[in-house]
Design brief:
Helices cover 66% and strands 7% of the residues. It has 343 residues and is an alpha/beta fold. Strand 3 and strand 4 form a beta hairpin. The relative contact order is 0.13.
């Protein structure tokens, strides 16, 4: 190709086109066809009749449901509050009841209702639905935490591009300190949005800010460290890690039971899931499972520190040879900062 300007433009078009492919595959693969896969539910009852009923439900549902029996309604409520099941059905000839906890997942609750409403209708009686853990009225679907995750993520990974491009001439330790400071600002903005602005958090705002800081700092430190090695490809890498794989596996819209196995597996250890599930634990479930999710965020922060430390060692060893190329790469990266906010 004879025109350097045209070659330069075409080279820079690779990143947005790859983003287009990746976003389409990730979002459509995760969200377009949600179906239950081993969705855990319980049937309340200790006698053989309850066990036969539970087995009948299981046989009709196949792999869509995992059905167990519990002796009492209270035991079913405890399992709901610990998020071990998505619904507990209490059979009755007059008033059958379905107990749910929609704050854990509005979509899971709807899926369970879809299963048991026809069961009650087949008996000729209406189904009573009781929600033992509903989201706050300001966030009726419980999906506000997912959109808070998006805001925190954009503030974090877009700042990586700015730090990499504008801060290329600064020592890595300075960029790392800036990353820590930026994460405090991003998490502070998140706390304001979740508290005074949109009232997602009616309590526990300090704890939510702490998790937001862990989440944001982990992303920023990973990005600052990766920039040393990837330069202009850092943008695409951050999009893959913290948008394509992160949002889709967070459980903010659909929990793993409504997704395929790939995203369900990521949900177990990805940082977005750690933040969303940790926030749910704090705000709606009396801290049940909170420690595990906080540790998930801490591990990602430690990973960020490790990547930054490796990058610092690399820069010290390569500084004389790579100073000029780094500045040129930073100039090119600055041209692509606007691409980093497309979600």
């Amino acid at each position: 190709m004879r025109s350097p300007a045209l070659r330069h433009v075409l080279t820079h078009l690779v990143t947005p086109l790859l983003m287009c492919i990746g976003m389409g595959l990730a979002y459509m693969g995760a969200f377009v066809t949600p179906e239950p896969h081993h969705l855990p539910v319980a049937v309340v009852g200790a006698g053989p009749e309850a066990k036969v009923f539970a087995q009948t439900v299981k046989d009709k549902a196949g792999e869509a449901l995992d059905v167990r029996t519990v002796a009492t309604r209270a035991e079913g409520v405890d399992l709901l509050r610990s998020r071990e099941i998505s619904g507990a059905y209490v059979p009755s000839a007059k008033t059958p009841e379905l107990v749910i906890a929609s704050a854990a997942s509005d979509m899971d609750a709807l899926a369970v209702e879809k299963v048991f409403t026809p069961v009650a209708a087949g008996q000729g009686v209406p189904l009573k639905v009781t929600d033992v853990a509903a989201p706050v009225a300001d966030d009726p679907t419980g999906q506000g935490l997912f959109f808070l995750l998006i805001a925190l993520s954009i503030g974090s990974y877009a700042s990586v591009a700015a730090l990499g491009a504008a801060g290329a001439g600064l020592p890595l330790r300075v960029r790392a300190l800036l990353a820590v400071g930026v994460s405090a600002v991003v998490s502070g903005i998140g706390a304001l949005l979740a508290g005074p602005v949109f009232h997602l958090a009616h309590h526990g705002l300090a704890g939510l800010w702490g998790m937001a800081w862990l989440y944001s700092a982990g992303i920023l430190l990973i990005g600052v460290g990766l920039y040393t090695f990837l330069k202009r490809w850092t943008t695409l890498t951050m999009m893959v890690l913290f948008v394509m794989l992160n949002f889709t596996s967070s459980g903010g819209l659909y929990r793993p039971e409504l997704q395929n196995g790939f995203f369900g597996t990521l949900h177990a250890f990805w940082n977005g899931a750690g933040f969303v599930e940790g926030a749910r634990s704090l705000l709606y479930f009396d801290g049940d499972g909170l420690a595990r999710n906080v540790w998930t965020l801490v591990i990602w922060l430690l990973l960020g520190l490790a990547v930054t430390a490796v990058a610092a060692a690399h820069e010290r060893s390569e500084a004389p040879e790579q100073a000029a190329p780094a500045v040129r790469e930073a100039d090119e990266e600055e041209e692509e900062i606007e691409e980093t906010v497309g979600v």
